[in-house]
Amino acid sequence: MTQTSISSAAALAEMLAATGYLADEGLATIGYLALSMERPLLLEGEPGTGKTSLAEALAEGFKLPLIRLQCYEGIDATQALYDWDFTAQILHLRSVEASGGAGMSVAELESSLYDKRFLLARPILKALQESPAVLLIDEIDRADDEFEAFLLEVLSTYQVSIPEFGTVKADTAPIVVLTSNRTRDLHDALKRRCLYHWIDHPGLAREVEIVRTRLPEVPALLAEQVVRVVQQIRATDEVLKPPGVAETLDWARALHQLGRAELDLASAAASIGALCKYREDTERVSAALSRMLG
Amino acid sequence: MPPAGQSTPAGQKPEQHSAEEILLAFASAVRAAGVKVTADRARSFVDAVGRLALERRSDVFWAGRATMCASPEDLPAYQRAFESWFAAEHSAAQRLESSATSVTAAALDNDDGGGEGGREQLRALASRRERLRHRDVAVLDDSERALLHRMFEELPVRLPTRQTRRRHLDRHGDVDRVRTLRDQLRRGGEPGPLRRARAPRKPRRLVWLIDVSGSMAPYAESLLRLAHRVVEAAPRQVEVFTLGTRLTRVTAALRVPDADAALALAGRTVPDWSGGTRLGEVLRAFNDRWGQRVMVRGAVVVIASDGWERGDPALLGRQAERLHHLARRIIWSNPHRGKAGYQPLQQGIRAVLPHVDYFIGGHSMQSFEELLDVVAHA
């Protein structure tokens, strides 16, 4: 029995709900499978559908550390895995020199340079060392092919070997969540290693439930109105970036901060920046709002 | 690594199919629906189902979706396959019967092989594919053609590249003296790690001109499928045109991910299938319209045609020369070139030969592979 075992998909959904993350049946089932098969979870979907927050909820639910690796173009193993702290090593050498050698042989001195304290553990190594942990590899589609290949290697064995140091192996496999915004297609080998889930925007009832759970202070009427408007905006194909759940929450929060108990045109116009992140969208949505609420 | 203590749902009576068989047959049905389900994915699926309580249909649905789908495009096909397969009125045996036809060569058609049982069929399939590679595509029957079309999806595509001028940090590049020294100065002269840099290579543009006139009819579809495969590999770098009585740009049609759908769309786009051809005039239209733009300059141009020219060969020669002055390389792929005893006698071919960098075949899978290889190194 490890800390990450769970008896069923329903139990997992319950645990996530306790942290304020409402997973639907499909996501709960797949999350349960990922834990049970010790396979990474690959989540794709529109921005703001809760891919990253699932990893956060898992970490909170299992009371594990969350280790996040944000991918970007050109990321490589030294930023993701480990690096040697070169400056500290040089300082160490200098201080040994200054103290007159301290009676160390050359071999001793060299091996002292590759001590654990000079090893900069980057997220993946850290996750292996601190496992059980939740490792979130965010926006993997931004990294390049070489990095994917390297990642595949780590995710297949959950161990890395560092030439000067030895092999680091996770005692228990960390819970790995990869997210992708589909700016490019991932390599098939990596996809085959993972369990795949496409997260859609939630339906009306579920989204209202999410707003009520995450922002209990927001009045029910306002929550429902906000969600209804957001759902309508999503349904029309006119906006550059459809608002995600994150935007819904931001907007509901903003309206609540403004002290509104109901959605009206003036407050909607004042707080539209929480919902739309493009000027063109702001204009379109403002026009649509005046139609909906006018 | 497979998890220990793998439990598969038991249900093995002599006259009944085991649950595993049914699940694997469902995986084949999903594959037949157009989702790329490899053998290891199918195994993951069986493993995943074994970990769930099997009372509910939805468990099988989610287990299959997580293990067999790889992108949102797969989801509708998966959904359809699931609904038709697990419809209540079919018995398991019936479903196995109906799937037996689709679990043929196609089911075993993947690189990482099935279990012991599939080995014989795999061998047979491998040799069949090998024979098929050398056959002229013009003389294949329908089933062979279908298998060949699937083989297109596995063709390795590499684009030709060009050297860029700016150097960027790159761990595999040459030592960058300036950056290394700057780093050293920053540390007060203490020597440190070497900084390396290199100028990356960028893919060159690739332009395919495919002759779809009457004499090329047996090859046009295969060539378009080949072009589709290349477009799929690098959608932003590849342009495809068909040459007939007129010039048609079919790039957009070929960007559709599914090969059959793309071909159908291209077919509707091209108005002059199997008509006559005036290569010289169409090539002139191409040069006038696209030649002066950024599309051809520095690109690798592949012309797939047998060179049957009804018009004036001298015009064709002049236009080929114009194109040659713009493009980086011109590769002429002629389906008759690869056959025994071929002599370039047509006037059209003789007119263009001086302006072509590579003159190669293009009538079988093997010659397509060679063509792609020449393209990659052009």
UniProtKB/TrEMBL annotation, chain A:
SMART domains found in the cross-reference section: AAA
Top-level taxon: Bacteria
PANTHER family, A to Z: MAGNESIUM-CHELATASE SUBUNIT CHLD, MOXR FAMILY PROTEIN
Domain AAA+ ATPase per the UniProt entry, residue ranges: 37-214
A Pfam match: AAA
Lineage of producing organism: Bacteria, Bacillati, Actinomycetota, Actinomycetes, Micrococcales
Membrane-spanning parts: none
Record protein name field: AAA family ATPase
TrEMBL record, chain B:
Protein name listed in UniProt: VWA domain-containing protein
Top-level taxon in the UniProt lineage: Bacteria
